[in-house]
From TrEMBL:
Official protein name in the record: Solute-binding protein family 3/N-terminal domain-containing protein
Native species: Sutterella wadsworthensis HGA0223
GO cellular component: membrane
Keywords: Signal
Domain Solute-binding protein family 3/N-terminal stretches: 26-249
Top-level taxon of origin: Bacteria
């Protein structure tokens, strides 16, 4: 092989390495686009929301790409665990039970449960809903709260596939109350001032956190997500996204554990 040929071969190899190095990995993100303001479909069918903007910022900070796929709540965990999704981000509350099925990122959103009741019903706690019809999203934190209070088999608990359906049932008078995440329900109240619902936070409702889920043992994806999340928090990009969607500065999140 001539010197010229060797030089050309080396140059081609270097170019190949360079092109490979700049090709960012793309992660498929499952998100349930019925959960305003965290994720929902705009009129042009684009998925938008707080979670979407935050994940884009995380990906940019850490140098990977993301592709969002609308995934129903009932299938979002199976889709992650069977490999159809690399990440799930859909206002998912971190719980001990869910930790058994997926690995969670560091917390990215402070939340708690909230109760909305019809205009003619005033309550001070969840217990005041004894004998009332309650709407929840199936397998959500609100479902857990209602099941713990009244029994999972209670016929007064009406389970729905998503939040809009549960809120519609409350608006139509089919149930007396709805339990859900505070960010979602307060957003709904802000966007629908004609709905004269009452709000109640049970004193026993503890603060909760949302986390980004990855498949058990998938340390590469988890490390990328956590590293990107840490960068956007430290840079102030997280607060910018929070202010865009909620109109105030973000509350302080727990210190990273890893």
């Amino acid at each position: 092989m001539s010197l010229k040929t060797k030089v050309l071969t080396a140059a081609a190899f270097a170019a190949l390495l360079a092109s490979t190095a700049v090709q960012a990995v793309t992660y498929t993100v499952g998100t349930g686009a019925t959960y305003r303001p965290f994720e929902y479909e705009a009129p042009n069918k684009e998925i938008v929301g707080f979670d979407i903007d935050l994940m884009k910022a995380i990906a940019k900070a850490q140098g990977f790409d993301v592709e969002f796929v609308n995934t129903t709540w009932s299938t979002i965990f199976p889709a992650l665990n069977n490999g159809d999704r690399d990440i799930i981000m859909s206002g998912i509350t971190i719980t001990d039970k869910r930790k058994e099925a997926v690995d969670f990122s560091e917390p990215y959103f402070l939340a708690h449960q909230l109760i909305l009741t019809s205009s003619n019903l005033q309550i001070k706690s969840l217990k005041d809903l004894e004998g009332k019809l309650i709407a929840v999203v199936n397998a959500s934190a609100g479902d857990v709260a209602a099941s713990n209070a009244f029994g999972k088999a209670s016929t007064n608990i009406r389970r729905f596939d998503n939040t809009p359906l549960a809120l519609e049932e409350l608006a139509n008078g089919g149930v007396d109350a709805m339990i859900g995440d505070v960010g979602v329900l307060q957003w709904y109240m802000k966007q629908n001032p004609d709905k004269k619902f009452n709000q109640c936070r049970d004193p026993e409702f503890q603060e909760q956190y949302f986390g980004i889920g990855v498949r058990k043992g998938n340390t590469q994806v988890l490390n990328d997500v956590n590293a990107g999340l840490k960068k956007v928090i430290e840079s102030g990009a997280y607060n910018e996204v929070y202010r865009k969607w909620f109109g105030s500065d973000a509350p302080k999140l727990p210190a990273f554990t890893k």
